[in-house]
Design brief:
The complex is a heterodimer of chains A (250) and B (331).
Chain A lengths: L2 E12 L2 E7 L2 E3 L3 E5 L6 H9 L6 E6 L2 E2 L5 H6 L2 E3 L12 H13 L13 H13 L15 H13 L5 E5 L7 H12 L6 E5 L3 H7 L2 E6 L2 E6 L1 H6 L1 H8 L1 H4 L1
Parallel strand pairs in A: 4-9, 4-10, 7-8, 8-9
Antiparallel strand pairs in A: 1-2, 1-3, 1-5, 5-6, 10-11
Helix pairs in contact in A: 3-4, 3-5
Chain B lengths: L11 H4 L6 H16 L4 H23 L8 H16 L5 H23 L4 H21 L1 H4 L24 H22 L2 H11 L11 H27 L9 H14 L5 H20 L4 H15 L3 H12 L6
Helix pairs in contact in B: 3-8, 3-10, 3-11, 3-12, 4-5, 4-6, 4-10, 5-10, 8-10, 9-10, 11-12, 11-14, 12-13
The chains are: A alpha/beta (250), B mainly alpha (331).
Chain lengths: 250, 331
C-alpha cells in the first residue's frame, strides 16, 4: 500500500507540556481517514505540524515519500498538501471570486506577476468560477465573503484549499458551527471529491465520521491510542472507554 | 470547464476591475486645470504633487502590504540626498537623478525590509522609526557630505530632456512633478490590480491564510516594501531637483508622522486616498496657517479627528459611501 502522508514519532512540546506524543500515522493514498479524539487531544496541533504551521520538536513528516519536515507551509502546499482551518480564515473584504482566484493564481505560480491585471488572467478566473460552480457557490461569486452565512463561508474554506489542487487535503472540523442540515450538504460535497485527493479529517460529529471515513485514528492526550476501520474502532474497548462512550451507544 | 459553460455567470466585475473609470479621468484633469487656474501657486502645487507621490509610496507599503511605518521619511531622505549628491557631483540630468535615487532608495528598502518584517506591528513601528532616526543623525553628523543642518547646496540641474530649464515661476517643476506622479501612479495602479497586488491584499486581510494557499508571504512583503522605498526615493529626488536644495528635514520624524496623518486622512489602500489626503492636508495647511499662523495645527487636528470619527477609511471612505448612492461615482 502506498502512503500519501506519514508521520514518524512526531513530538511537539510547549515548554513542559507535551501536545503531541510520539505520533506515527500512516494515511493511505486515496483514503478518507478521520482523526478523532476528545477536546484537547492534540488533533489541531497535529494538523499544524503536518502543514508546517508549527515545527515539531522531534520526528518527521513524509509527504508522498518525501521528507517535508523542514519545509515551510507554502512549500508544502506546492507539494500538494492543503488544509482548511477550524475557525474560518478567509478574506472578509474580498469577493468570493476574488478569494478563490487569488488561491488559483498562487497554485498556477503567477501570484508574483505584477504587470497585467488579474482580470487578464482569464484561465485563472475561469478555473476559480468552475470551482465555485462545483461547490455551489457560483451564485454568490461577486458577493463579499463577510456578507455570507457561516455555512457558505465554510464552503469557501474548502474552495480555497481545493484551489491548490491538493493530493492530500486536511479538513479541520469543516462542519464546526454549521447547522446540521447544512453540515450534511457540506459532507455530501466533500464526499464527491475525487479519490485522487486523499482526505484526513478532524470531526466531532461521530455520525458523520462513521459514514464518511474508511479509516479512523484515535488521538488521546497527544498520543495515538488506536487506528483501524470504523467497525473495528466502534468495537474497540479502549476507544469506548476514553472517548466514544455515549456518542456511539448513548 | 470555463465560465462560458456556466449558465448565467458573468465574470465581468473581476475582469473589468482594472479599467479606468470616468471619475478617474476627471480627477486627472484637476492638475491640468490647476496649472491654468492657479498659475501663481505653482510652487505649492509642485509640493502637493511631490508629497502626493510620497503618500502614494506609503500607501503601497501600509495600505496594500499592511506594513505600518513611522520612518518612511528615511527613503524620501535617501532619495533626496542621492539626487542632490549626484547633481552636485556633475550627474545633473533630472531623469538619471530620479533613476539613481530610486535604485539607491530601493536598495535601502530591500536591506531594511528584513529587519522590519521580523516583528509585529509595534515592532515594525519601532524599527522603521529607529532606522529613520539613525539616518537623520548620520546626515547631521556627516556635514562634509550632506551639509548637516545647513543643508546640501550647490545643486544645479540640467534642463529636463535637454530642452526645459527649471524656471523661476516653477512651470517646468510643476509639469515635471505632475508627469512623474502620473506615470508612477499609473504603474502603481497596474501593480495593485495585478496578481501580486491581489496577494498583497490577501496578506493584509489574512496573513495566516496566505501560506496555506502556497504564497511566500515574506518575499511578497519584501517586494512591496522595496517598491514603496523606491517610490519614496523618487519623491525625495523630485523635491531636491525642483528646489535645488536638500534640507536635513527630509529625514525628520515629523515628515514621517505627517505622511501617516495624510494617508489616514485620505484613506488607505485605494491609491486615490493618498492623493486626496495630500490635497486636503496641504490645502488646509496652507489656508489655516495663513488665517491662524500660530495655532493652525489645532484646526488640522480637529479635521483629522472629525474625519476619523465620521468618515471610515478617510475621505475616500466617505466618497465610497457617497458612491453607493450616486451610481457612476468613484468606487
Amino acid at each position: 500500500m502506498t502512503h500519501a502522508l506519514q508521520t514518524s514519532r512526531l513530538v511537539k512540546r510547549f515548554g513542559g507540556f507535551v501536545a503531541t506524543s510520539d505520533v506515527t500515522l500512516n494515511v493511505a493514498a486515496g483514503a478518507r481517514h478521520a482523526l478523532i479524539g476528545p477536546n484537547g487531544a492534540g488533533k489541531t496541533t497535529l494538523i499544524n505540524l503536518l502543514t508546517g504551521f508549527l515545527e515539531p520538536t522531534e520526528g518527521t513528516v513524509i509527504l508522498k515519500g518525501d521528507d517535508v519536515t523542514r519545509l515551510s507551509q507554502h512549500q508544502r502546499v506546492k507539494r500538494g498538501l492543503a488544509r482548511t482551518f477550524q475557525i474560518n480564515r478567509l478574506f472578509a473584504d474580498m469577493t468570493v471570486l476574488e478569494s478563490v482566484t487569488l488561491a488559483v493564481c498562487e497554485r498556477r505560480g503567477i501570484g508574483a506577476r505584477w504587470w497585467n491585471p488579474v482580470g487578464s488572467h482569464v484561465e485563472a478566473i475561469d478555473e476559480a468560477a468552475a470551482l465555485l460552480q462545483q461547490l455551489r457557490l457560483i451564485d454568490v461569486a461577486h458577493h463579499l465573503t463577510k456578507s455570507l452565512a457561516y455555512g457558505r463561508q465554510r464552503l469557501i474554506e474548502i474552495a480555497l484549499a481545493l484551489a491548490a489542487k491538493p493530493s492530500v487535503l486536511l479538513l479541520d472540523e469543516p462542519a464546526a458551527g454549521v447547522p446540521t442540515s447544512e453540515s450534511r450538504e457540506l459532507f455530501e460535497t466533500i464526499a464527491q471529491l475525487p479519490r485522487e485527493v486523499t482526505i484526513l479529517l478532524i470531526e466531532h460529529d461521530m455520525d458523520l465520521v462513521f459514514r464518511f471515513a474508511d479509516r479512523i485514528s484515535v488521538l488521546v492526550g497527544g498520543a495515538l491510542v488506536a487506528e483501524d476501520t470504523p467497525d473495528m474502532i466502534a468495537r474497540d474497548k479502549r476507544v469506548k472507554e476514553v472517548y466514544l462512550g455515549e456518542a456511539l451507544h448513548g | 470547464m470555463t465560465t462560458h459553460s456556466i449558465d448565467g455567470f458573468d465574470p465581468g466585475p473581476l475582469r473589468n476591475l482594472a479599467r479606468w473609470k470616468r471619475a478617474e479621468y476627471a480627477f486627472w484633469l484637476l492638475p491640468v486645470a490647476a496649472y491654468f487656474a492657479l498659475g501663481e501657486q505653482l510652487s505649492l502645487l509642485s509640493q502637493i504633487a511631490i508629497t502626493a507621490l510620497f503618500a502614494l509610496s506609503l500607501d503601497l507599503v501600509l495600505g496594500y502590504a499592511g506594513i505600518v511605518s513611522l520612518g518612511h521619511a528615511a527613503f524620501f531622505g535617501i532619495g533626496a540626498y542621492a539626487a542632490g549628491l549626484m547633481a552636485a557631483n556633475g550627474w545633473n540630468d533630472p531623469l538619471a537623478g530620479l533613476l539613481g535615487a530610486a535604485l539607491i532608495a530601493a536598495a535601502a528598502g530591500f536591506i531594511t525590509s528584513f529587519l522590519v518584517l521580523r516583528g509585529s506591528d509595534l515592532t515594525r513601528l519601532m524599527v522603521t522609526l529607529g532606522v529613520a532616526l539613525m539616518l537623520f543623525e548620520l546626515a547631521n553628523k556627516l556635514t562634509r557630505i550632506t551639509g548637516g543642518v545647513d543643508g546640501l547646496q550647490g545643486i544645479e540641474m540640467k534642463p529636463l530632456l535637454g530642452m526645459f530649464s527649471f524656471d523661476l515661476y516653477g512651470k517646468t517643476a510643476y509639469i515635471y512633478s505632475v508627469v512623474v506622479l502620473f506615470v508612477l501612479f499609473w504603474i502603481a495602479r497596474r501593480i495593485v490590480h495585478s496578481p501580486f497586488g491581489l496577494s498583497l491584499r490577501g496578506i493584509r486581510l489574512n496573513v495566516q491564510r496566505m501560506p496555506a494557499l502556497g504564497a511566500p508571504v515574506n518575499a511578497r512583503l519584501v517586494g512591496a516594501y522595496t517598491l514603496g522605498a523606491a517610490y519614496a526615493g523618487i519623491a525625495g529626488a523630485l523635491l531636491t531637483q525642483t528646489t535645488q536644495f536638500v534640507s536635513i528635514d527630509v529625514l525628520s520624524f515629523s515628515r514621517s508622522a505627517e505622511l501617516l496623518l495624510i494617508l489616514v486622512l485620505g484613506g488607505t489602500g485605494s491609491l486615490y486616498g493618498a492623493l486626496i489626503g495630500t490635497i486636503v492636508f496641504m490645502t488646509a495647511h496652507h489656508l489655516l496657517s495663513g488665517i491662524n499662523p500660530q495655532y493652525w495645527q489645532f484646526w488640522l487636528g480637529m479635521l483629522l479627528v472629525l474625519v476619523v470619527l465620521f468618515a471610515r477609511d478617510g475621505v475616500m471612505g466617505g466618497l465610497r459611501a457617497l458612491g453607493k448612492r450616486l451610481p457612476g461615482a468613484v468606487k
